[in-house]
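Section 5.1 Outputs to date
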Amino acid sequence: MPSKFQLDKAAWQWAETTDPDNVTFDHVRTAYRLNLKPCPLGSCKRNCKGNPLCLNAIGERVWFGKIDDDDWHQIEDPNYERRDDDMFVGLKNLGATCYVNTFLQLWFHNPVIRNALYKFREPDEHVTRDVTAEWSPSSIGGHLQALFALLSLSERRYLDPKDFITHLGLDAGQQQDAQEFSNLFLTLLEDALSRQRDACVRNVIQNQFRGEYAYVTTCNRCGTKSERPSTFYELDLSIKGHKTLDESLKDFLQEEKLEGDNQYMCSSCNSKQNASRKIHLKYLPPVLNLQLLRFVFDKKTGMKKKLNSFIQFPEQIDMTKYLTVNNCAGDSATAEGVDGNSVTYNLTAVLIHRGPTAYSGHYIAHIRDINSKNWFKFNDEEIEKMKGSKLQLGTEDDPEETGAKQKGRCPKGYHSSRNAYMLVYTLNEENPCSTDSKVEAQQLLPAHVLDYVIKDNETFENWVSELMLIRDQNIESGKEKQEEIKETYQKLAFDKLEVNEGEWISLKWLNSWLTDPAKSEPIDNKPSLCKHDKLSPAAAMKLKFVNLNGSESLCNRYEGGQRLIGGDSLCMLCVQQQCHVIRTKIRMMEDDKFFGSMTKPNVISGPSYWVGKASFRSWKKMVLEQLGENDEDKRDSTDVEPSVENGLKEKESSSAKEEGQKEKENTVTTEEALSKEEESFKFNEDILCEAHDRLDPDMTCRKLVPVEVWRRLKEYFANCPEFAKDDPVCGQCNDAMRNEQQTKEYLRKLAQEQKNALNDLLNDRKRPITLKKPIEVFILNKAFLEELRRFIKEPLKYKPIQNIGNSILICEHEGYLYPQSQGQLELYVNDNFVYTWSSEWDKISQMFNVDYEISIISYEDDDKNLGIVTLPQVCDECVVSRLNQEENARFDYDEAVIFVRKIPKQLQKSAGSSSLNPNDENSKDYDPDFNQHGSKKRGSTSDPLEEPPEKISKNENGTRKSQRHRKVRGEKEVKVKSTQTLKDFKLQLMKLFSVPPFDQTLLLNGHSLCDDTATLGGLRIAPGSIIMLQADEPAEDLLVLQDMIQVSSGPESGFKGTGLLGNSERIS
């Protein structure tokens, strides 16, 4: 098949030799490419863009290939939600309930607790139940029993604990303190089980978790010992400053000195005495819960803080050395009961908190199965069996945490973690009994709970069956759809072309139909119609000519508007018009060459005519517009999306790209050459004057062309304006143009005169700056100077200046508002005015009208003392009022910029308030970039030629300095408003410098900014101020700072209002 470019050329090649009136139907067929042969299906790797009879590579290949069954549906295999035979059941995280899930899994995997809950019976269980009614738990024991039953017998991969969470009244979206939840829930459960008849159920919490210790206090004077016994369900161990569990246990049992204000009241001495107090462990439970105090209260911030230090703990621990003599663990683990052996506990669970702070993160649990001895990681819905039989905490740390200490090497039999917050040790038994939770559940659970589980499993199975049925139906339907599309597509192709048995359908629509038939829109041919309601030849290549056998089924299914069937859809008139355009273009090319040769310089002789330059540049475009033709429309008529082959767009051939690029470049060049005016007039109308439609006297808009050129142009534009070389121009416009030229010349001359007269003033050179010798200087409104500069630079754009308004420098009492400071000899600098020499003022007075003449005179009296006089005199009252207004305006701003410099750590200790003033030279010494050009100051001079005054200001001590801000290393720009508070400003700085607000000390000119509620304007912070930032301590991790912003400043409510504190009637 020839290239698209060749096919495009062949489709209209006949038009070069055929008159439009002699166009036949064969010519029309050729123009619509229906003279080409149909491409057999599967014969082309790419779609033939220039052949409307090629239906290859338009997206059909995917339907003729093998389609995976999963492509016909979006339903995941529901069996993925089925519990594996050798795995436990997970618990769904309802938002922030991961801390609850970890404890539920921990208690479920305690066989004693689990069996006790299986044996739990509701108080009203003896009442006869309605067998038709569905049972649902109503108490805390019932909910936990139902949950444990499902964890044991459910077919689901994970359970939804929504009913349990709702019963407790917990907010599923709020993360709570895990240790507090454990304590409150066990207290609640212990109370709920206390009314059970079975002693094993009634006392299970105490028997499993409760231990005993005593506070033993010894008087240092008399040696009397007093003992106060107490029970515990867990030991709270501090990890701050400790590296191992042994250190934390020793710290817990460490002797405390009671001295000074904390003396002990000895009953024997009958007075306060120095004493020592120590905790004696008396009895350890079978399950020893060790709470690592990883979350501590920070008094400085008033919030909880997480300690991310590593703690090392053993897989097996001998608690003998921590017990007092003759006191051991367990109901039977007395000193005699273990025959003098050590009291050994095995690690059976590690609870983990991932996250840098106490207010965010995620809870997971590592639990050892008592039967298989394997470790499992419980992460809400996901449960992972650890490889081997050893605990693996290698992946428990959050990979996004930064700045943490490196994990040290652990001895064999030990583990180390910076995220573990609770360790569970279980008393080592020589021959522990293996338990099967499923068998125990079947034997111990009441019948209605077993029915509850069975119904839940039935619901799950029905859900699986329903989804599988839908999947199978979708697959079957999809395969039928595949066969239907294949059949329809094959019917679209021609074996042998018959024009009257075909129909035009959009290629884009065919692409979309083969991509996703379900999303196909109705077939719309309206964009491809010509003005005669037939198929436009220019749009023909955006469509494909298909067999009616296939298109009928498509139109019946997807419907649409007007159909383009057979030869009646081809437009003879449009083809004739295009033929005329092609022939006209050929003639235009010949004429264009002729025009080029005839309009060369020194070629024109004899009669000639005026042609507008813009018209002559665009005459070809105007011809095409007359023909109803537009370059934009005549670009590649097959401007459609590249063919789609199995979802991939086909790349254009190199030849087509080159042709398209050439046409695009030509079009862009033409468009750039035409102005908006050129697009809005007809040929040669650009040489007419706007007011009278006569020959414009402006010769820059027209040119002369020979009579031969003009005659050819007239053939294209018969009714265009015609002016011979000697035709007169518009007299009225000619006079107006002459006057305009004179005015322009006057303005240019005026601007040049004013520039020459005031050159130094305009260029800010040789300005008066001091009154150290007798002199008179005049004051000029600076706004006038800016206007004068604009006029001199562009005198034809701006109006000439006539008046000078110095009244803004004068008060209502006609007194001067900007006086010199007392005793100050250097001229006062202000943005509202400039100083001029007497010679300059004389010229200004002559050239402009001045409303007020203002001058400052320095003179010597008889004693050679220098004096200063201002004319008019200064109005002291109004000067004070002006200064107050300006001062207040300085501190009223919106979106102003101030600069903040952070003080390096090495300078914080030695930096006093005076050394932190950014205006002092010494305060900049810490930055090597500040003094990179040296600190040498420019010596004073009596020469009045210095920097422009608006670039110079004065310090409080009168020293002149540049107003340009020099940025130093470590400095940041901050956009602020005068109405924002200092607290809001500190929050901005926290994001820039990673220093929390409570660690920020801010200094302005050496003075500390302390009032967080005050506004920046109230603290007299002006735009451009330099604030020094001192960090009191190293900044926290950025994630920690973000949590500090998000945490409410109000008091934490904890579990207030939940069932854990007895505030729900449903809790029992």
